[in-house]
Amino acid sequence: MRHLRPLGELARAVAAEVRGDPLTPVRGISYDSRAVQPGALFACLRGLRADGHDFAQEAVRRGAAALLVERPLPLPVPQLVVPDARLALGRVAAAYWDHPGRRLRVAAVTGTNGKTTIAHLFAACARAAGEPAAVVGTLGAWIGGRRAREPGLTTPESADLQELLAAAVAAGDRWVSLEASSHGLALGRLEGTPVDVAILSQIRRDHFDFHGDFESYRRAKLRLFTEAGRAQGAPSLGAVLNAEDPSTPWIAARVRAPVLLYGFGAPAHLRVEEVRRAPSGRTRLTLRWRLPGEAKGGRLDGSPGGRLEVEMGLPGAFNVSNALAAAGAALLAGFAPEAIARALAEARPPEGRVESVEMGQPFQVLVDFAHNPAALEAVLELEPVDGGRRIVVFGAEGGKDPGKRPLMGRAVAERADYAIITSDNPHHEDPEAIAREVERGFLSVPDPPPCEVVLDRREAIRRALEVAQPGDLVLIAGKGHERTLVGADGARPFRDVQVVRELLVALGLAGRHRLLRL
What we know:
Layout: E1 5-6, H1 7-12, E2 17-19, E3 25-26, E4 29-30, E5 41-43, H2 56-61, E6 66-69, E7 79-81, H3 85-96, E8 105-110, H4 115-128, E9 133-137, E10 140-143, E11 146-149, H5 158-171, E12 175-179, H6 182-186, E13 197-200, H7 208-211, H8 214-222, E14 238-242, H9 248-252, E15 259-263, E16 270-277, E17 283-290, E18 305-312, H10 317-332, H11 337-346, E19 355-356, E20 364-368, H12 373-379, E21 390-394, H13 405-413, E22 418-421, H14 431-443, E23 451-453, H15 457-467, E24 473-477, E25 484-487, E26 490-493, H16 496-506
Parallel strand pairs: 4-5, 5-6, 6-7, 8-12, 8-13, 9-12, 13-14, 14-15, 15-16, 20-24, 21-22, 21-24, 22-23
Antiparallel strand pairs: 1-3, 2-7, 9-10, 10-11, 16-17, 17-18, 19-20, 25-26
């Protein structure tokens, strides 16, 4: 889709000074000089390693008709001069695409873990309620029921996000379920996107390499529930917060919107009264709910509360919490409880989230994106179906918060029966040095389980499958849906699920048994 807007109209969205002809037609927006098309507005964004102003001349050479800048540049095209080009970009892009966020309802979820699952579960609830819903997040974008974007940034850059929202409007979607990462919030990628329902999974240690410390990380998350740089203010329908997360009281005190708490305990608006394991291996839940008094959301037979029976196939207590978060948001959105129950019953784990690999091997194999201490702790609560051991293949990513590496090792040592430390996107760091930091945390646990260091990830997975016995659970953690392994020499194709399948065949383990599905 390509539209045409006069530069002056875009300038009004951010009250920007126009230097040059305000009638200059704009035929697209770009922030990458290599991707500029003739007639585009090029946004000069300052990044951690580069400044877009340094690439403005190249953008003009490629045909940029105008520039979004923080300082005037000696180039022969009109310029919008703003204090912060990154924050202005979202509002300018929203104006260019005729404010698609105002023609949709938006549910946005943030938190250290669970964002992808919650976003997909909420979209499933919307669809079950007869509300077409798009999804934008770590696994890409689904618009109008079709995949419209491959996996990339969890929260797309604001110009890309506005284009996706416009595509959702054109496709007839009425809701967008959006993952809001701490990076995306801190960098203003939700600028110009009004949020109707804001959801928090939990806040644990992660991304300190970017935010610096826990308080800065937590404040980035808070932006979703207050201003998020969006100007529209707090979420219009309300906030859905995890009653059991230590940061929830701090966030709730700062939200100027109805707050719905969810959790396993009595103080929550939406709580689990009973959890039962069905003979099929599915989880049966009894939920009790009541809406906050000021909420404008759904009602059951005119009542602001009710009781709901749910059976779902998503394993683990962490997925019960994810389901509660999605259900709470769906209730605030006004979806019928029966539709919510139906959506949760039919839900399957998203790609790379406790994804089961079943090829008739005599043990379970799960591939999961768990890449921080809290995520490893949560997924390692899963019990092997037949009472066997937990065998874990994991590592820590290079170029990211090194402080969490020993914590990841400790989390596995405290919960696994056998561990193999391997590479997980080392980038330009030495994989052996990363593994030593992880191993140091592993060995800090008194009487740790057996552990090997196998830096070749494929060989590490092979080793785990070789040592697995009938009834064991093999967890391949860290990469989940990812399709490349990134080292000093760049990215090469690597997908955990595919590697597991190939090795099960090569080792002669495929086709021997039928496992109880999680």
